[in-house]
Amino acid sequence: MNARLEYEQRLWQQGYSRVMGLDEVGRGCLSGPVAAAGVIFESGTDIEGIRDSKNLEEGERKRLAGLIKQRALFWTVEYCSVDEIDKLNILWASLKAMQKCVDAAREKPDYLLVDGNRYGSSLIPYTCLVKGDDRSVSIGAASILAKVHRDELMKRLHQDFPYYGWKTNVGYPTVQHYEGLQAYGITQYHRRSFNLKTDKEYREKDQ
């Protein structure tokens, strides 16, 4: 048996039929929303190669994302915006994005497997798993979908704001990202509650 199915197998055997894996990406970014995904697999589903999305090449992530979408009973990707991040702080925005995934399911999950060491209050039973994206197929699948969707969003934004390197850094702190902030200023997609190392505001005339 795939070791990453241990938690799911145990829950399926206990009678849970809609086990949702939850994970988020983008917490450490300077710009862009935080994304979360929720994935529910039918009992017994196993997809070879699912693991922490950060340990996969981009092409493999996209291939697996396609398989996950085909074979999942349910999947969704939800976001918390930059404004929500600045208002709530990044931890609570991440938890809110995961809760949005739970709320998006028309037929609610009956158990949650959550990456990390905390969740919010929930009427649905749940287990938090540190490094869960490498310990649970459902969480790993969620991490892949969240990263693929968020990366694609940041690459689209790069076309309008090419000064920050979002095509490659997808919003994470890099030398190019900070240099862009210094030269062109803070856009509406930047998280003002983070240390951006500048107070300069983005203006169209700076292009």
Number of strands: 5
Largest sheet: 5 strands, mixed
Q: Low-confidence stretches at least 5 residues in length (pLDDT < 50)?
A: none
Look up the CATH topology of the largest domain. Answer: Nucleotidyltransferase, domain 5
Mean pLDDT: 95
CATH class bucket of the largest domain: Alpha Beta
Radius of gyration from CA coordinates:
18 Å
Q: How far apart are the first and last residues' alpha carbons, in Å?
A: 55 Å
Q: Categorize the overall geometry.
A: elongated
> Strands across the major sheet, in which order?
3-2-1-4-5
How do the strands and helices of this protein lay out in sequence?
Elements: H1 6-13, E1 19-25, E2 34-41, H2 58-71, E3 72-80, H3 82-88, H4 90-104, E4 111-115, E5 126-129, H5 137-160, H6 166-169, H7 175-184
Parallel strand pairs: 1-4, 4-5
Antiparallel strand pairs: 1-2, 2-3
Summarize the structure.
With 207 residues, this protein is of the alpha/beta class.
Architecture overview:
By secondary structure, the chain is an alpha/beta fold. It has two domains: 3-150, Ribonuclease H-like superfamily/Ribonuclease H (Nucleotidyltransferase, domain 5, 2-Layer Sandwich); 159-206. It is 40% helix and 16% strand. Strands 3-2-1-4-5 form a five-stranded mixed sheet, with helices on both faces. Strand 1 and strand 2 form a beta hairpin. Helix 2 crosses helix 5 and helix 3 crosses helix 4. The N and C termini lie far apart (55 Å).
